[in-house]
Amino acid sequence: MSQNRLIYVPLGGAGEIGMNAYVYGYGPVGQERLILVDLGVTFPDMETTPGVDLIMADMTWLVENRDRLDAIFITHAHEDHVGAVGRLWSELRAPVYARAFTANHARRKMEEAGQDPDEVLTVEPWPETVEAGPFKVAFVPISHSIPESAGLVIDTPAGRVVHSGDFKIDLEPGVGEAFDEAMWREATAGRVRAFMCDSTNVFSMHPGRSESDLGVEIEKLVAGAPHMVVATTFASNVARVKTLAEAGQAAGRSVCLLGRAMRRMIEAAVETGVLEDFPKTIPPEDARDVPRENLMLIVTGSQGERRAATAQLARGKYLGLEMHEGDMFLFSSKTIPGNERGVIRILNAFSEMGVDIVSDDDRYHVSGHANRPDLERMHRIVGAETVVPMHGEHRHLREHAKVAKEGGFQSVVAVNGAMVDLTKATPHVVEHVEADRVYLDGKVIIGALDGIVRDRIRMALNGHVIVNVILEDDAPLGEPWVEIMGLPEVGTSRAPLADVLEEDLNQFLMRAADKTLRDDDKLEDELRRITRKVTQDEIGKKAEVTVVVSRLEE
Amino acid sequence: MSQNRLIYVPLGGAGEIGMNAYVYGYGPVGQERLILVDLGVTFPDMETTPGVDLIMADMTWLVENRDRLDAIFITHAHEDHVGAVGRLWSELRAPVYARAFTANHARRKMEEAGQDPDEVLTVEPWPETVEAGPFKVAFVPISHSIPESAGLVIDTPAGRVVHSGDFKIDLEPGVGEAFDEAMWREATAGRVRAFMCDSTNVFSMHPGRSESDLGVEIEKLVAGAPHMVVATTFASNVARVKTLAEAGQAAGRSVCLLGRAMRRMIEAAVETGVLEDFPKTIPPEDARDVPRENLMLIVTGSQGERRAATAQLARGKYLGLEMHEGDMFLFSSKTIPGNERGVIRILNAFSEMGVDIVSDDDRYHVSGHANRPDLERMHRIVGAETVVPMHGEHRHLREHAKVAKEGGFQSVVAVNGAMVDLTKATPHVVEHVEADRVYLDGKVIIGALDGIVRDRIRMALNGHVIVNVILEDDAPLGEPWVEIMGLPEVGTSRAPLADVLEEDLNQFLMRAADKTLRDDDKLEDELRRITRKVTQDEIGKKAEVTVVVSRLEE
């Protein structure tokens, strides 16, 4: 059995912050039994993925090996860890294990995708373990910005590895379990081969603050507000929502939650018992009748999402509620890089309404991820031989590896698709498997490299010209017809672009050799070439061109 | 003449940071003589303006009144102040005044747009003045992140107004004039009706640092680097480019400037005499032969621009130069909100190469704009009755007005298109003129509301389906033909989307009433409706649809 090995293969999350999906394997080379940790999504942007609804890790390699897959473990209920469970489960078909609150979300994902929610099994935390093939997995509670997060202690015949999940070191997280160093020391005692560790905040140099530090500040702020107060945070940050609601209550305000995600998250937290003593809330229809100075709204949309409550309030009324001059809007959140434009649009819309914005993210927000000193502390608590950075862009992984080495640990940067053999004394990448991305586009899953999104981007940059030509017995019947979408109607010659195009295309057809007219490919190439040249001359950009040649026969 | 009034009308820059264009007027109501201060551009983004090359203020109102326009004044050579001079001059046709370095740039803009560069006149700084209609205008030197910036002191028969231009308070700006409080006190002595003031950094609470503070830090950093050093900053920040080059020289490195904008800016600065003692540089072809540890590149592209030198180096070779493991890349710059994604892409590409990135923007960068305490100081120096915030998004203008009022000044928030009557003791908005945006799209100027860009965005979000139908004597000839761009080829029914569409459209045509087949509009509407329904059912999104009906007649 000397050929058995222990491997780690990130398929998502090691090269971006998002779409987490990490595989562990144990067994003979190429026949390892496998488990998958997390199955999340990441979000599209207009620049690189216009029209796309969600981005997920490409599971091709795992699907090809799904007879070897024994289980899926979900560390916590954030979308980048659980969001793809429903969509991708039917291709993987392994039991899904999670703690109660997370399982509640995973089951909803399964239902939404038409899968059986009973495939999701609720597990108890460490010292309980789940056996899956050669793996014994324990969920060790860890503090994060959502209840019931867990790191995993994974035992195999080749030794132990520890998977941090997302975490921060918070001794008073408000809702959910406090970080328990003694428990972590005990759960990870003995030889640990490797520690797969969250890298998100490796560039933040100060120790993280506790969620509990915010309460006093937020309470003071809300108490001093003369008119309506509206606050936004991530819906999944149940502790923060509670902190905000308590501040409202303490100031004698009625509290109203706005946004489906927010209400659903609080319901799930109450149902699964992780949330107790949440202040009484009122529904939006009652909120309209409460004097504004006695009202506090807690709303979704801290990242500027166009359809969330914050953006709706910035555009005007939402469920009959609206903001007025002198109201206060609190961002109890941090803008994720890339979302600045949407958030700034909202700040300016509120400014036009005369709303006072508070967005000091040092005072009214703490991150859910461990900063550098806390990462170093966690490295020492787990005491693994090797630290393998995960949950980060390349720059985070690389920096985290540096930090680990400076702390006296081995480290290896493993990006999506890299297979690391953890059996050796010095782990290193032994192979690369396919690890791309797929897109949920409406109801359909497409590959990132299918060219579909590339075509959309090209149309958005260059406009689209449709050229129609009808041929009868290989001779033009009438003149070509041009339709234009997304291009100026008139170019430098001051004649309509469509007219110039039709004229030039017609000239070409009149003179074209029979050989060209008989050959669809050649004809299309020529018509496309002329169209691009004309749009370049007239507008200064080469349009995307679709040529439709219709051939009639006698 | 009691009806003469003094007015201020921002057409761009008061509601965004960019495309500055401010009008002042003096004379009888509706017949005021006018001057324009600055004529800049702003930059497009994929989210709201895909395919657009530049964004400029809509000059419709000013063009309609151009017989009243006496002059254009350009405060400094940043693109958001001078960038539209060439493109829009032919519509305005008034003399352009600027100081030498700025005039150098304005002339190039004129030449590039095929206009006469001699329309740009070089002016000397205060106490010299330019007379333009009823206006006397003096250019008062002020420190900023580009040489020869000026604020304007504008005298009219109705009194004096002061226009700050972009500025910071820097006593040692490196290149260009230091802030001279005594000069500013003298130039603005006496009654000042209104002070139009830069609002960019109103949310930065600490006093600004001097450019000279950076030199020591950068020198230390470069001296300690073991391999090649590459640094980026704004090309127009001539002082910073010099600081960087001097740090390279002090470390015994050959210095090479990469990127057309960078070389052109330094040339202009040398030509106009604002830059002296710039370290000797070598051309890229020589840089290839210099040992890496003796080389320093100073490059364009600090904002992640795809075609600039930084992005090119992140993708691989640029002019035969490339980055290696252990090289250092310094961002001596700050990422402008909205540009994060592009910059982060570059950070990760460098990380994959093993390049060490330094981007501490507190240590290696200072802003060109006055922070709040410096704004307050400047309010007091100018001592105007009213402070009118400009050069900012709405949130900056509103906050700046608050700050001014707290300092004991009157203030009024005037956004693009708002006409402020400055003659009254308490200035307020008396009218709104049209003040939208226009886009340079390739070589053509289009309106923001023309629908062209909206169509591009729709194609990018929803894909584009082209439906072709040929009718002969109002009866379908053959079957409809569908082309698809930017949509998945196969939908939920697992049949090709084009086939499903053609089938359903054909079914419709076979059964369509003669009345429908004879009516182009009706026929197109029906074909579009069916196409959108099918794409919704199959893909989950309603495609953009172009219908082409060709009618043949016997």
Automatic annotation (TrEMBL), chains A, B:
A single Gene Ontology molecular function, please? RNA binding
Query: Which Pfam families does the protein's record reference?
Result: Lactamase_B (PF00753), RMMBL (PF07521), RNase_J_b_CASP (PF22505), RNase_J_C (PF17770)
Q: Does the keyword Hydrolase apply?
A: yes
The protein's matches in Gene3D superfamilies, at most eight in alphabetical order, are given as:
3.10.20.580, Metallo-hydrolase/oxidoreductase, Ribonuclease Z/Hydroxyacylglutathione hydrolase-like
Q: Which residue intervals define the domain Metallo-beta-lactamase in the entry?
A: 18-206
Q: Which InterPro entries match?
A: Metallo-B-lactamas, RibonucZ/Hydroxyglut_hydro, RMMBL, RNase_J_2, RNase_J_b_CASP, RNase_J_C
- Source domain of life is Bacteria
**Entry keywords, A to Z:** Exonuclease, Hydrolase, Metal-binding, Nuclease, RNA-binding, Zinc
Q: According to the UniProt entry, where is the signal peptide?
A: none
The answer to whether UniProt assigns keyword rRNA-binding to this entry is no
Q: Would you tell me the protein name for this molecule?
A: MBL fold metallo-hydrolase
Q: Which organism is it from?
A: Maritimibacter harenae
Q: What is the lineage of its organism?
A: Bacteria, Pseudomonadati, Pseudomonadota, Alphaproteobacteria, Rhodobacterales
